[in-house]
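Continuing the batch. This is chain 6 of the set; chains 1 through 5 are on the previous pages. Same settings as before, nothing changed between runs. Recording input and output for traceability.
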Amino acid sequence: MSEPPRTSGLFRRLAAMVYDGLLLIALWMIATGVLVAFNHGEAIPPGHIGYQLVLLAIGAVFLCGFWWRAGRTLGMQAWRLRLVRRDDGGPVGLRLALLRYLAALLSWASLGLGFLWSLVDRDRLAWHDRLSGTQLVVIPRRR
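Output for chain 6:
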């Protein structure tokens, strides 16, 4: 009989976020180049709300798309992580993926406290895991 999946620790989460962060930065750079071109080659003014919303939308499409369709991003795949529903371990739908993304923004906005919470949480869950009813589990190695 197989044992239940193990919830990911903070190090593995952060390592996957670094991988995905690099991919997101590349996407944001491409989008910025396109937006600057549409702005007649002029820089986007700092704090421009439309630009910030575009970057947030790109992050949402990237992360939620992977979570919804594959259960994991490329960074999560490299670190053998999968996002599942906490109640039954099933795949995460689009609604939960979007809820998790919005809740993760709170974890970031609090200077990372939402992520650090997983160090003291009895189930090793971050704020956005609790708020969205999801969890990151470690995929066992193939033998």
